Each structure stands twice: as structure tokens, then as C-alpha cells.
Amino acid sequence: MRQSTILIMKKSLKLQRGRGKFLKNPFSKPRY
């Protein structure tokens, strides 16, 4: 995957983690 995509995923994971949607997100475990 692109490095930019990985960075975006990491940022989105942090935001979702704060909102509590992290557990419901199928991408909670990023596959590089």
C-alpha cells in the first residue's frame, strides 16, 4: 500500500478510537 494510505489509516484509527467506533470498524486491524 502507499505510505500516504497507511498514514491516513493511522490517523483515522486514532479518531475512531476516540469516538468508540474503533471496535466496530472492520479495519481496526490494518493490513499493510
From TrEMBL:
Superkingdom per UniProt: Bacteria
Protein name, per record: Uncharacterized protein
Naturally occurring in which organism (per UniProt): Coxiella burnetii (strain Dugway 5J108-111)
